Amino acid sequence: MPNPPTGFQHGITLRQAQKIATAALAEGRRLELAPLTVVVLDAAGQLKAMLKEDGCSLMRPAIAHGKAFGAMGLGFGGRELARRAQAMQGFMNAFSDLAGGSAVPVPGGVLVRAANGNILGAVGISGDASDKDEAAAVAAIEAAGLTADTGDSA
């Protein structure tokens, strides 16, 4: 038996997560966004990568994590979570409670999918307006050769 144990599959690889995080910051600079924080979670909802630009405010890492965590928690991109937060406030309040307050149901939380549609993880970005955060996430996921799922149907 190998020591340490091997064979765990957690979706997104470290290399992919690092590429997404650096590409997101590069896209933020290209778009002249406010300083960004990028969080990449694997398919188990665990932190795989996090980068925080100089000038980010105190809560940006928690907000970015919450955007990605919310997407992973329900399996929907942030846009769908935002719609559900408006339509089903009671359910989303319960979801937030169950998630320990760690779910942020707004754009900027983007699922990362493989070519076959399997969810590999999620990206959360915080720093600018949610739509702009989402644009940086989508560009970064695509730069890594993966598919972005914002919660909108194309």
Automatic annotation (TrEMBL):
Pfam families xrefs: HbpS-like
Source taxon at top rank: Bacteria
Source species: Roseomonas populi
Lineage, uppermost ranks: Bacteria, Pseudomonadati, Pseudomonadota, Alphaproteobacteria, Acetobacterales
Protein name as catalogued: Heme-binding protein
Gene3D superfamilies: Haem-degrading domain (3.30.450.150)
Transmembrane segments: none
